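Hey, resending since the last one bounced:
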Amino acid sequence: MIKRIAYIIIIGCCVLVTVGFFRYNPTVIYADKVPVSAETVVHVNLREIEYNILCSFLKHPFSQLDFENTSTKKREKKESLLNQVEIPSSLFFYTNQDEYKGFLISNKILFKKRFVATLKEEGFKEQNIKEDTFYVKGRMACVLQGNTFQVLCKLEKDAVISSELLTSLNEENYFPEEASIFDKIKNRDNPITVTTTQGDFFEVTIDDGLLTLQGKLGEGNAVFLPFKATSSNGTIAALSGKLNAEKVAGALGENVKAKFKKLTSLSLDSIADKWSGAMNFNLSSFIEKSDTIVTYEYDDDFNKVEKKEVQHIIIPSLSLSVEGKELCDYLNKKQAIKLVENDSVLTLMPLFTTYVSCKEDLLKLTSVKNQSKKRKTEEVNKFLFWFDVAAFQQKERGIYTFQNKYLDKINTIQFSVAKNNEVKATVQLSNTSKNFFFQLSN
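The structure tokens again:
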């Protein structure tokens, strides 16, 4: 009896995989999808994502189910937006630095009769510019044209949908299927691939609870400059590398620069001019301190009464080193660095005392006096980023605590750029047996 059940399960799995292969791997249509003005193209293979979830379900069937959430959703009986969309086998998103700047735009998608009503039920607000109608919620907008719509995702918080942007959506000149920008996409079966006209290419793979992004930057990429990145063991967060300071400052935008100057009285452009772009950051731990504060009160007879209060303080143990010959002089001139009890202190950090050390072209900031951390030089990478999210979230960090339903599911995040411009990034979830997409959708 047990053997018969086992055979039935095996046969069922084989049928599912076989059907799934033909169902989730159809021919992708590239024609009339991406306008020739696009500089960056993101291909989202929806069928591959579904197939990935299916395979994960077959490997770990019981771990994929959440009976509590499922029963709750059944009681709500709320109609989903996906039910009002003709879901294609894949989606293309694109952008450029001209008319699409600040937005990631999808190709056209067919919708059903109740699509608009469902949008309103989901909290999308109707807006109109001339004869164009679109619905906005947060950073997402749906622009309707006939029986199709396009998704506009804001890459910048302050990006504004203008009449010029809406007019550009009527582009009729598209890349042909044999265009070179699709060459690397066609050779991949990954859930998500990214390619640019500058030669950048990245692919995303999913292995249960692990998302991996791999690829290579184009030869013209000038964001990550040559550098010998360093790393240290046992840290919560670390960053090491050298960035193009001018490009970084330009990408921040005028609004960010204005807010920074209002908050600190410093100019980001001036800092970028004096900063070489090299930096090493390390957050090793959090230090808990208890200070006794003594205050005095007077009773009804005007007698002085001593009152003691214990205050618990949490301080991050961190260090930041940046290179720049005139950076220290600029901060001293702006009185951002002051001498307090024979210690040079950065006045811009009100949360904790930040000690400053200036040696030649190196500015070092530390939260602990005379703090030093041994770091080893990486022979392969010119840029490194590491964040142990689980270690950061496992304890209450006081004012440094931040709660997020997605971060609570993550174990570690890592990003690196090798000397040959090869890129690798990983996001590892705490639950490794449950599909990555499945977990993020809950």
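The CA atoms of residues 38 and 45 lie 19 Å apart.

Sorry for the duplicate.
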